[in-house]
Design a protein that fits this description.
Blueprint lengths: L6 E9 L6 H10 L5 E2 L12 E2 L13 H5 L3 H17 L10 E6 L5 H14 L8 H5 L3 H10 L5 E2 L7 H14 L5 E8 L4 H9 L28 E9 H6 L6 E10 L12 H13 L8 E4 L6 H15 L1 H6 L1 E4 L2 H4 L6 H15 L1 E2 L22 E2 L4 E8 L3 E8 L2
Parallel strand pairs: 4-5, 4-6, 9-10, 9-13
Antiparallel strand pairs: 1-7, 1-8, 2-3, 6-7, 8-14, 11-12, 13-14
Length: 413
């Protein structure tokens, strides 16, 4: 097998709080428009956190038959919506044997809406009222399975389930699958739909969520006022493809996936290592694979959740991995979670798309509402307004509960 194939991105798709297609999402990122507002899915009277970044105006029937919608959780509907966009743009289906196309699609939790609804039925009406579709609708592999069924992808089909690193891990493992010759194309990305009563209550009670009442002051990465992440939802999908095959069929190429790092802190179930060692090692792995020379101009799409510990640890990881001089003088960092909220298992995928669009357009999306910088977070976080920059390398960090760290690196082709 060829163990060093070049892997490129030939299709993108988005379902997000700031747009349900790539161009709308990207335009809103550059304009600094957020998708944060009051939670409308349930009554938040007794909840400390009342805001979220919800997907709006999404019609799953635009991507799925009505019967499929009725038999799937919202997380799978988001995933299929994003995947259909990416696959249709790519045009890869039909150009390869089915067993050479794979699906790696991440989610942090899976069908939490289904779990919540069916548990409610169980308690109120008894076990005979639980849906026979409960299990297939709630399990976290079903988004990958449904995408594979839709496009007859007979190669490997599986999820990455690594909390907030799920989307990035899915893309990174898809890279390796193609690079090492086990597939020629992979539909990959991540999805999440966890703005539910139990999901929000659980995050509140572990003191992870922002309880801000003003949508403009709710998701505040790297700002001294930050007090937790702002929960979001949605999906993002990418089609990864072997470069030689993409070129042979004349596909549009967004960029090359040039590096992937994956590590574990092995420290704590929720808190990052104070020395940022795990995140540093993931970045170093990705940068080494990418052939980073130490002098290139880098854009880092930060994990940047707006939690007090995470933002400080990630800042240190960036300095450790790039070197302080390079981190201060030749690196742009931003957290698009300031606009999308934290899309959990979908975060790494939509942030990978932000990296690719930054390379394509030469525009760096901002960290909005960064008005009071934290002295411990002292890098250039592109505050409040997008900037034009000719970057050589784009890097995306994802740091998940359980100590999971993933880093992806991209270049222009």
């Amino acid at each position: 097998m060829n163990n060093n194939r070049t892997v490129v991105v030939t299709g993108l798709g988005v379902v997000s709080p700031i747009g349900n297609d790539v161009q709308t999402c990207w335009d809103n990122m550059l304009a600094g428009r957020h998708g944060i507002g009051p939670i409308t899915y349930f009554d938040t009277t007794n909840y400390k956190a009342k805001l979220a970044a919800q997907v709006r105006d999404f019609d799953p029937k635009a991507y799925m038959e009505k019967s499929e919608v009725l038999r799937s959780d919202l997380v799978a509907q988001f995933a299929v919506g994003a995947a259909v966009q990416a696959v249709e743009e790519s045009g890869v289906i039909g150009t390869l044997p089915p067993d050479r196309v794979a699906v790696y699609f991440g989610t942090g939790i899976g069908g939490l809406n289904t779990i919540s609804n069916e548990m409610d039925k169980l308690r109120k009406r008894g076990p005979h009222r639980v849906s026979p579709l409960c299990v297939p609708m709630m399990i976290p592999n079903m988004a990958a399975g449904m995408i594979a069924i839709r496009y007859n992808c007979q190669g490997p089909a599986m999820p990455a389930v690594t909390a907030c690193a799920s989307g990035s891990n899915a893309i990174g493992e898809a890279l390796r699958l193609i690079r090492h010759g086990y597939a020629d194309a992979v539909i990959t990305g991540g999805a999440e739909a966890s703005i539910t009563e139990v999901g929000v209550a659980g995050f509140i009670n572990m003191q992870a969520l922002s309880c801000a009442e003003d949508p403009d002051c709710a998701s505040l990465p790297f700002d001294r006022r930050r007090s937790g992440f702002l929960i979001g939802e949605g999906a993002a999908a990418l089609v990864l493809e072997a470069y030689d095959h993409a070129v042979a069929r004349g596909a549009k190429i967004y960029g090359e996936v040039v590096g992937y790092g994956s590590t574990c802190d092995a420290y704590h179930i929720t808190a990052p290592r104070p020395d940022a060692d795990g995140g540093t090692r993931a970045m170093v792995q990705a940068l080494t694979e990418a052939g980073y020379q130490g002098t290139e101009r880098v854009y880092v799409n930060a994990h940047g959740t707006g939690t007090p510990l995470n933002d400080v640890a990630e800042t240190q990881a960036i300095k450790n991995a790039l070197g302080e001089k390079q981190a201060y003088e030749n690196t742009l960092v931003s957290s698009t979670k300031s606009m999308t909220g934290h899309m959990l298992g979908a975060a790494g995928a939509i942030e990978a798309i932000a990296c690719l669009k930054a390379l394509e357009t030469g525009m760096i999306p901002p960290t909005i509402n960064l008005l009071e910088p934290d002295e411990k977070c002292d890098l250039n976080y592109v505050p409040n307004q997008a900037v034009r920059a000719d970057i050589d390398l784009a890097v995306s960090n994802s740091l998940g509960f359980g100590g999971h760290n993933a880093c992806l690196a991209f270049r222009k082709v």
